[in-house]
Structure formats: structure tokens, C-alpha cells
Amino acid sequence: MDVRVSETAPSPSPSTCAQNSDACAVIRSILARTTDKWSILIVKSLGRGPHRFSELRRAIDGISQRMLTLTLRNLERDGLVLRTVTPTTPPRVDYELTTLGESLWTLTEAFGQWALSNRPEIEAARSRFDARLDANT
User: Fold this and answer.
1) Cα Rg, the chain, nearest whole Å
2) Is the pLDDT score of 12 beyond 60?
């Protein structure tokens, strides 16, 4: 089973947020779910291919079993992750990105590349800012 974006209703653009509070609420709730720390790291890990729960837990430093379970459940609910149970003893559970999840992975990879490419400029700006703060204290 794969999840695809519905074409029945036009998607709100971020610029419609100023004119439409409903669109703003939709954008805010989706971004809150998909851009939190653990969701990004799970999507990044699954971008390399399907993983079992224990593989994800080892790959994502600092995530608790409970947080991994909750985040995977939310990503599955939103149609970004597919959970497949293989009836073996013990049951095998694999997680992978859906087509929608892969589109999010593409965006997160681009954002990560942007961060790496602009790191020197960002660090220089931070240093200038901190120096101004130190000078004013």
C-alpha cells in the first residue's frame, strides 16, 4: 500500500497563510509533525532503505524506545512511513518511506545540504552577533 497526495482540493501555499487562518493552521500542524527532531532523523535513516525497529534505534543516537515508537506511529498515520509485519517467530516489523515520505526525504536532504554549504557564513554571523552582545555587557 502506498500513499499519494490527493488531487481533490487545491493545496494551500504558505503565502495564503496571511489571508486564510485555516490554511495557516494546516501548514503549522503539518510542519510541526514533519520537522521535529526525531521525525527528521527517522526520515533521513529510512531514506537509505527499509529498516527494522532495532536498526532505527541504533542508527538514531539518543532516541528512546518510546519516542521511536510514538514518532513512527505518527509518521505512519500521516502516510509518510509504511509498517510491514512479517508473520514469523518472533514477528518481523520493517519500516520504509512511502512515496510521500520519499518526497519529504528529498526536502530534508536539500535542507541538510543547504546547512552544510552555508555553515561557514552562519558561524561567522553567530560570532559577530556574540561579539556585539559581549561588547554591550
Assistant:
1) 19
2) no
Whole-angstrom Cα distance, residue 14 to residue 31?
11
For residue 6, tell me if it sits in a domain.
no
* pLDDT band with cut points at 50, 70 and 90 for residue 20: confident
pTM for this predicted structure: 0.76
Contact (Cβ atoms closer than 8 angstroms) between residue 38 and residue 53: no
What values do phi and psi take at 97, rounded to 5? Answer: -75, 140
Asked if residue 83 belongs to a domain, the reply is: yes
What are the angstrom distances between the C-alpha of 135 and each of 12, 123, 124, 126? Answer: 45, 18, 17, 14
Binning pLDDT at 50, 70 and 90, where does residue 8 land?
Answer: very low
**34 contacts 78 by C-beta, under 8 angstroms:** yes
Q: Is residue 26 part of a domain?
A: no
Domain for residue 113, yes or no? yes
Please, which residues have CB within 8 angstroms of residue 61's CB and are 6 or more apart in sequence? none
Q: Which residue in 90, 84, 54, 80 sits closest to 69, CA to CA?
A: 54
Which three three-digit cell numbers place residue 44? Answer: 533521513
